[in-house]
Write a structure and sequence with these properties.
This protein has five helices and no strands. By secondary structure, it is mainly α. It has a single domain, classed as Orthogonal Bundle (434 Repressor (Amino-terminal Domain)). Helix 2 packs across helix 3 and helix 2 packs across helix 4. The longest helix has 21 residues.
Length: 74
């Protein structure tokens, strides 16, 4: 079960990084738009932090994608 959780965190990390990069934003820019600290965005992208529902919602809103997209669901 730990493997699937780890994979999910890795998927979220990659999806956030890809969408941020597609927007041409730095981690600081995404953090500012999502109302988060840059360190939080860095930790999400490096798979060192499991974001809460509120954090996922803030990031998805800032990126203009659904939470489902961040979770790797179509």
């Amino acid at each position: 079960m730990g493997t699937s959780s780890t994979k999910s965190i890795e998927q979220i990390s990659e999806i956030v990084r890809v969408h941020r990069s597609e927007n041409g934003w730095s981690q600081l820019e995404l953090a500012n738009r999502a109302g988060l600290d840059r360190k939080t965005v860095n930790r999400i992208e490096n798979g060192q932090f499991t974001p809460s529902v509120e954090t996922l919602l803030a990031v998805s809103t800032a990126l203009g994608v659904s939470v489902n997209t961040l979770l790797g669901e179509k």
